Amino acid sequence: MKKKENNFKKHILGKNIIILFLLALTLSCCNNDDDNNSGSSLPPATQTGANTVGCLVNGEVFLPHAEGINPSVNCFYQFVGGEWYFSMSFADLRGATNERVTVQSGKVELQEGETYVLSKNFNDDGDFTGGGGTYSLSASNRYFTTTQESGELTITRLDLSNSIISGTFWFDAVNGNGEVVEIRDGRFDWDY
What we know:
Shape: globular
Strand content: 35-45%
Helix content: 10-25%
Number of strands: 11
């Protein structure tokens, strides 16, 4: 009887080890990025609130990546002081850089299916009416849209009752040294 009991315990222990091994193998294959945009290609241009965002920066895929406690994406569309404000900002926070792309509008009520010009430098002029785009590599190396270096934001879905905003964007921006960056094929689909 004791021998059967020992064999039974070994059998159960063996099965548990196999199950733990398979579980560990499965978990090690999971992607632990919390930005839902892993990989080397842009996310699809959807309108479902999929919490995806990305663009091309000078032809290279740029996606948000979190590191530490700071979020890699910040998106809002809100009514404040009688005016509408929108911002979609996403960053690669890995390592020493803080590369970030931002598209925003101020004092503009966005409409689904409409396209808005991105030509403002909200950092510079104090007039927050209109739309603008920013690309930054660091606090001291930032590129802004202007009336000469501009772009467009198109809202493909705006669902206020479900807090979903989706769209596409592109823009050119210039830094203080006159260097221009090209932001292309931008898309976002966010449940804000």
